[in-house]
Amino acid sequence: MSTEEIPSFRYTAELAGELEQRWQTRWAEQNTFAAPNPVGPLADGPVPADKLFVQDMFPYPSGAGLHVGHPLGFIATDVYARYHRMVGRNVLHTMGFDAFGLPAEQYAVQTGTHPRTTTEANIERYLAQIRRLGLGHDERRRVATTDVEFYKWTQWIFLQIHGSYYDTDADKARPIAELVAQYEAGTRELADGRAWAELSRTEQRRVVDSHRLVYLSESPVNWCPGLGTVLANEEVTADGRSDRGNFPVFRRTLRQWMMRITAYNDRLIDDLDLLDWPEKVKTMQRNWIGRSRGAQVSFAVSPAEVDAPVEAPAVEVFTTRPDTLFGATYVVLAPEHPLVDQLTAAAWPEGVDERWTGGAPTPAEAVATYRSTAAAKTDMERQENKQKTGVFTGSYATNPVNGAQVPVFVADYVLMGYGTGAIMAVPAQDSRDWDFATAFGLDIVRTIAPPEGFTDGAYLGDGVAINSGFLDGMRVEEAKATIIAWLEERGLGRGTVQYKLRDWLFARQRYWGEPFPIVFDDAGAPVALPESMLPVELPEVADYQPVSFDPEDAESEPAPPLAKASDWLNLELDLGDGLQHYSRDANVMPQWAGSSWYQLRYIDPTNDEQFCAPENEAYWMGPRPDVHGPNDPGGLDLYVGGVEHAVLHLLYSRFWHKVLHDLGHVSSLEPYRRLYNQGYIQAYAYTDSRGVYVPADEVTEADGKYFHQGQEVNREYGKMGKSLKNSVSPDEMADAYGADTLRVYEMSMGPLDTSRPWATKDVVGAYRFLQRLWRSVVDESTGELRVVDDQPGEETLRLLHKTIAGVSEDYVALRNNTATAKLIELTNHLTKAYPGGAPRTVAEALVLMVAPLAPHLAEELWQRLGHAESLVKGPFPTADERWLVADTLEYPVQVGGKVRSVITVPADADKDAVLAAALADEKIAALVDGKEPRKVIYVPGRLVNVVL
User: Fold this and answer.
1) Could you give the CA distance from residue 203 to residue 850 in angstroms, rounded to a whole number?
2) In the chain, how many domains are there?
3) What pLDDT score does 308 carry?
4) Last residue of a domain, which of 677, 697, 732?
5) What DSSP character marks residue 505?
6) Do strands 756-757 and 681-687 pair parallel, antiparallel, or not at all (unpaired)?
7) 281 within domain boundaries
8) What angle do CA 253, 259, 264 make, to 5 degrees?
9) Do 468 and 569 fall into the same domain?
10) Does residue 18 lie in a domain region?
């Protein structure tokens, strides 16, 4: 249709854009989405008991802006929040920005632009894009981790954790002052037996610091020269490279801040049972923490040659399968194990297998070379490597159950960070040990009888013990209990529990991050700053670049950008001992710091006195056993985001929250009561003959092939994103169709928790639906209302109330795709059944139901229908039960096990009436052909089955 032929009042992209801007302005001016708090600056109205706190995962404000995949979860939470706001709940929904991090810093290095300038510009662009979508956020509650008033409280929380220790008797964190009081009172003993008063002040500080939940440690770290910083294990890929930038990562020993997240191992696992989370995410967290029950076993060592001591200490190993001890044919130490030097012999034993020596003339040279090679690999790389390597130390250990002398190796598939850093190797029952034993010609002894037909390789299943002395004939669990008791009786081992999770490396050699609220005295001891000195603000620097290194330079030394800010680093302070010189930490916190607690600041973003008032936290996040049951841990009501954060952000945030709970700062046990993982929007991407991605919007199709600038390209399917050059901007879609159309299309594409393909050509379907809805209310030619005051017919009433009930259930369950389908069905019905104008009662109910999905259009139609007040706070229609009860029922009728016909009977028809109708049906009567059925099976409300 030409421009001249388009009716003046048709719902077009231009009209949509105009009314969307108008309603967004009105919402902002009237603070429509403000949610009142119980106390404080935002206590600006009565607080209903029925509340809802819904939140999206913290986005990073990328300079690239949004593509249509980003808002998928944002729109879904907005629909959810809008529905619940319409049914009368006090809804807190807002969005902030996880704005510290490496991208802004790298851009600053390239351009000389301060990271704050870049970050704030990115935030403004991001806000413009999400505001255009009509998201109903409480704008007063927006935060960014880079705001000084926000990271002041991040630093404050750091001080709370630093000022605490884990009381194992109480099974929770307690203030460190309580620990000091116990030492002073003599109710807690020192490990070396000395009295507290005998220790110097320096020694006392060292003891106290060793108990803190935040501590300094000389420990192996993941050093990435290409990024100029160390990385947490979770930030390193399985290939031993940085997840950002794909640079090589090397193991180095550095003095770094660590957080004692491992103190919470059991609580982090056990409390997962309290959470309404996807089971997949719970499993990922359980596996990441890696709780293993087993035994710690002592292997006495027999040094091989001269320089090794005669009485060498035993090697302690942890095993989850102590029942296989009789099959342990060698011992392996991690390259970093402290006993490696002590157990490395001066010379090779006579007749040593050459495969064990690494080609070196002495054990010392073999071990040194091997350790150097292992240092260049990450933990993940060492674990994933299928080709097993190692060298013999020259020493032997004694298997405690049979006295066998077994060689002691150093191998990188054993990690110092798990268990004791040493293993007893049972190749017949462990695949990695099997591979190593096969490569090095070591003995393999089966201790579990494999099933019949099992041929080769390690057998990992259950079975009966064999070749295991007094354990023979026992099944695995019985054998475990028996051997642990046997070891404990003889002082050779004990039952114990181990974990994979390591303490959290909490320092980065960057500029753009939160400074630590810690200073160091001239002796190098850390001193926490008083709260009155917060915030410690980032200084202005001219150079944001860490000292650059060759990405392959494993021996390079970290040099943070803040090390150059000498005036900021060095300061004179009176911290109770008179004016003294102190130095600041040149490292900054990792990006995860702010995102570990931001939901609490959403609750109370303008509070200058507290990070979050207890009354507000208890209202929005406190346990609600009356609503959620007696074991409700509290937390926000719905958290939507990607599954990729399962073992990073979600684990870290749970840890911080539990510390705050232990210290009495929050009432909730957990930060996120319910978690929902949305899927992704995917799109076609195209590569040329070089394998280089080309812009998807420049590709054309001809005869089933695809071309870019005349050259044929390959098509593939993947996650939408900048790197694949297949992004579609939401602004582009809003320009072409309106933001409401984009919202409806994204919600109608499929179930929210699954990934779905983007197809721009299909957006028009959502557009036409909204046009039909508009025409149901507004005359396209005159702009006048088309609704009538006639009473709707019975068929319409049944469909209307069925739609109300179904859409309400769908909105609560986040089934927005099926809610959309129901609304389309009702709209199509009105279009066909009432060509002269829909009944007002039905049209108003339809507009209200559409409002969570297409809020701008719904507001406009609601106003045109004569309502002065916004529909944001309802009312949402209520289904009348009278119209939900069907007056007829359909029964499939089976003959010979197959459905042969369907009959319709009154809903109140009894069994005899249903059976009579079934046998009287023409199709069924023809099949029965006058014969007496052997049996007629009747399932009320479901089916009739005739057996001939």
Assistant:
1) 68
2) 5
3) 44
4) 677
5) E
6) parallel
7) no
8) 130
9) no
10) no
> What residue ranges in 201-346 does DSSP mark as E strands?
214-224, 229-231, 250-259, 292-302, 315-319, 330-333
254 band by pLDDT with thresholds 50, 70 and 90? confident
Q: In the structure encoding, which two tokens stand for residue 2, read together?
A: 């030409």
The pLDDT of residue 221: 80
Structure tokens at 248: 């090589």
For the sheet with 675-677, list strands across it. 90-92, 51-56, 638-641, 675-677
Alpha carbon separation from 124 to 130, 144, 507, 732 (Å, rounded) = 10, 12, 29, 18
pLDDT at 306: 39
Are residue 229 and residue 308 in the same domain, yes or no?
no
Q: Is 702 within the bounds of a domain? A: no
CA distance 105 to 511: 7
Mean pLDDT on 312-326? 93
pLDDT tens per residue, range 631-687:
999 999 999 999 988 988 999 999 999 999 999 999 999 999 999 999 989 888 999
Look at strands 935-939 and 172-175 and give their pairing.
unpaired
Residue with tokens 């982090």: 268
Task: Give the residue numbers spanning the domain of 391.
Answer: 292-498
Residue 738 domain-assigned?
no
**One-letter amino acid of 892:** P
CATH of the domain at 99: 3.40.50.620
Band (pLDDT 50/70/90 cuts) for residue 548 is low
CA distance 41 to 619: 15
Q: Among residues 677, 706, 732, which one ends one of the domains?
A: 677
Q: Would you list the DSSP string of 76-118?
A: HHHHHHHHHHHTT-EEE----B---SHHHHHHHHHH---HHHH
Buried b (16+ CB within 10 A) or exposed e, 354-385: eebbbeeebbbebbbebbeebbebbbbbbeee
CA-wise closest residue to 496 among 504, 487, 505: 487
832-882 pLDDT tens trace: 999 989 999 999 999 999 999 999 999 999 999 999 999 999 999 999 998
